Amino acid sequence: LTNGPLTGKHALVTSGPTHEPIDPVRYIANRSSGAQGTAIATALRDLGASVTFVTGPADVAPPAGVRVVRVNTAREMKDAVEAALPADVAVFAAAVADWRVASQSASKIKKKNGALPVLEFAENPDILAAVSQMTSGRPQLVIGFAAETDQVLDHATAKRVRKGCDWIVANDVSPETGIMGGAQNAVTLISDTGAEVWPRMNKSDVATKLANLIVDELGRGV
Ligand code: C5P
């Protein structure tokens, strides 16, 4: 779109899981499908934004008409995000692994008659927090996600402050909700003015609603 409300704006979206290698053939991952992040990138594109889409190995195909940067690990995702800045708005929808295997094996770990391997972990960089706390060149609007299984609102509200982002899109990813990997999402949008509970709707509708709020916020000017 050459004359949409986000024409001339650069939107950065992260999406999907990350894969953290154990050895050359094994990895640790999570159940993120990439559906919500892909829908958000699509909605922003449809409003005219130029979109950089940094994606881990997702189940769903990235949207057409956006710049796609494929990564595997959290550290690769951080590098890709830094390389993509500056942006007017950054939406961190990726389910980034909190931990990676501290010393991955250069060769496939073999069974040794009953001795079990022990994995040690190291903490991954927090990409959302790093971008939220940039002292220069920070995107005007930084949006994080909070996928929780309990005390969703409390955890997400605390997360917004701790990370320093502007908005948090909180959702309950308990298995019985069917949200992770499903077509629908039930979110609460948390900002400095409070929490807004959205009805359960298709992930594409969550994306459209969020994208329209992004238009309003960027339109408020700097
Ligand atoms: O702390 P938690 O992983 O629950 O935070 C979720 C939010 O932070 C999501 O927006 C996710 O994309 C982002 N995040 C990140 N880098 C990490 C961990 C989470 O950008 N290492």
Automatic annotation (TrEMBL):
GO terms for cellular component: phosphopantothenoylcysteine decarboxylase complex. The chain holds residues 188 to 409 of 409 of the full protein. The keyword 4Fe-4S does not apply. CTP binds at residues 98, 108, 125-128, 145, 159, 163. GO terms for molecular function: FMN binding; metal ion binding; phosphopantothenate--cysteine ligase activity; phosphopantothenoylcysteine decarboxylase activity. Coiled coil: none annotated. Residues 1-40 form the FHA domain. This is Coenzyme A biosynthesis bifunctional protein CoaBC. In the N-terminal section; belongs to the HFCD (homo-oligomeric flavin containing Cys decarboxylase) superfamily. In the C-terminal section; belongs to the PPC synthetase family. Pathway: Cofactor biosynthesis; coenzyme A biosynthesis; CoA from (R)-pantothenate: step 2/5; Cofactor biosynthesis; coenzyme A biosynthesis; CoA from (R)-pantothenate: step 3/5. Keywords: Decarboxylase, Flavoprotein, FMN, Ligase, Lyase, Magnesium, Metal-binding, Multifunctional enzyme. Catalyzes two sequential steps in the biosynthesis of coenzyme A. In the first step cysteine is conjugated to 4'-phosphopantothenate to form 4-phosphopantothenoylcysteine. In the second step the latter compound is decarboxylated to form 4'-phosphopantotheine. It catalyses: (R)-4'-phosphopantothenate + L-cysteine + CTP = N-[(R)-4-phosphopantothenoyl]-L-cysteine + CMP + diphosphate + H(+); N-[(R)-4-phosphopantothenoyl]-L-cysteine + H(+) = (R)-4'-phosphopantetheine + CO2. Its EC number is 4.1.1.36, 6.3.2.5. Binds 1 FMN per subunit. Residues 11-222 are annotated as: Phosphopantothenate--cysteine ligase. The keyword Lyase applies. It comes from Celeribacter marinus. One of its GO terms (biological process) is coenzyme A biosynthetic process. Its cofactor is Mg(2+); FMN.
